[in-house]
Design brief:
single chain, Rossmann fold, two-stranded parallel ribbon, 3 helices, 7 strands
Length: 136
């Protein structure tokens, strides 16, 4: 409920009699709206629903690291802020590798790695440590 304050979501087996071969439908109710199937949500609502499910899995089954690829690309500023608070919490116990173009996401990083192409066509990796990590 922290990513979707006032919202709700659920996973529904498409064939409850055969749970091992069943598909899964995702339903979400963004705050102030009716329950909708995932396919009917806006891009930001889909992203937020997917990220909420991932975070729930991460908290139920912690891992030493997570790789997230532009999960916040479709989020508005308010929802990005909510996600960044949760990412800060996750990084206390796990390493996060996040691919992003969002400046606000980069600002919470311990280190940044960028890939660029020089004029001669050679790819170059640029790194910048922003702060010492707590694990050091």
């Amino acid at each position: 409920a922290r990513l979707f304050p006032g919202g709700d979501g659920r996973l529904i087996l498409t064939d409850p009699d055969n749970p091992l071969s069943s598909g899964v439908d995702v339903e979400a109710r963004p705050p102030g709206k009716r329950i909708k199937r995932l396919s009917l949500l806006s891009g930001g609502e889909k992203s937020l629903t997917a990220v909420a499910m991932l975070v729930a899995i991460f908290k139920a089954r912690p891992s030493p690291f997570y790789v997230l690829d532009e999960v916040e690309a479709a989020l508005d500023d308010v929802n990005l802020g909510r996600l960044l608070v949760i990412l800060e919490e996750l990084r206390a116990s796990s390493q996060l590798i996040i691919i992003t173009h969002q400046k606000r996401t980069m600002e919470i990083a311990d280190a940044l790695y960028g890939v660029t192409m020089r004029g001669d066509g050679v790819t170059e990796v640029i790194s910048q440590r922003l702060r010492e990590s707590d694990a050091s």
